[in-house]
Amino acid sequence: MPFSKLKTIILCSKFKIKGPDTEGVRADIRSMEEERKQIEKRVERAETKSKALSNYDPLYQAAKKLRIEKQKSEEIQMQIRNIFRKQFQKYSIAIYGSQKIV
Fold first, then answer.
1. 10: left (phi over 0), alpha (psi -120 to 50) or beta
2. What pLDDT is stored for residue 52 in this prediction?
3. What secondary structure does DSSP assign to 55-85, as a single string?
4. Are 90 and 100 in contact (CB under 8 A)?
5. Among 8, 18, 22, 99, which residue's Cβ finds the most Cβ atoms within 10 Å?
6. Average pLDDT over residues 70-78
7. What are residue 21's phi and psi, to 5 degrees?
8. What pLDDT, in 10s, does the model give residues 7-59?
9. Could you give the CA distance from residue 43 to residue 46 in angstroms, rounded to a whole number?
10. What are phi and psi of 33, to 5 degrees?
11. CA R_g for the chain
């Protein structure tokens, strides 16, 4: 057996010993799957409880509208921040010249 092949075999065996902890990764995956199942059960229970309410549909629609309005509000706030940032940059360029102030 040539020396280079022997060296390769030894390096490969060392890598296997020092390689990633596959058992630990598998255990993490199993625990994440179990957690996902528990969350799915909680969601199912919450759905059945909410559907048992007599005014489920109006409450559902109101919650949906509220979520959409919150998203719109966040987008508008981001746009306002961007406008102020651009105005500040224009102002700082006018005062300080081409220096960029962040």
1. alpha
2. 84
3. THHHHHHHHHHHHHHHHHHHHHHHHHHHHHH
4. no
5. 8
6. 95
7. -80, 90
8. 677 766 655 555 556 787 888 889 999 999 999 999 999 888 888 888 888 88
9. 5
10. -65, -40
11. 29
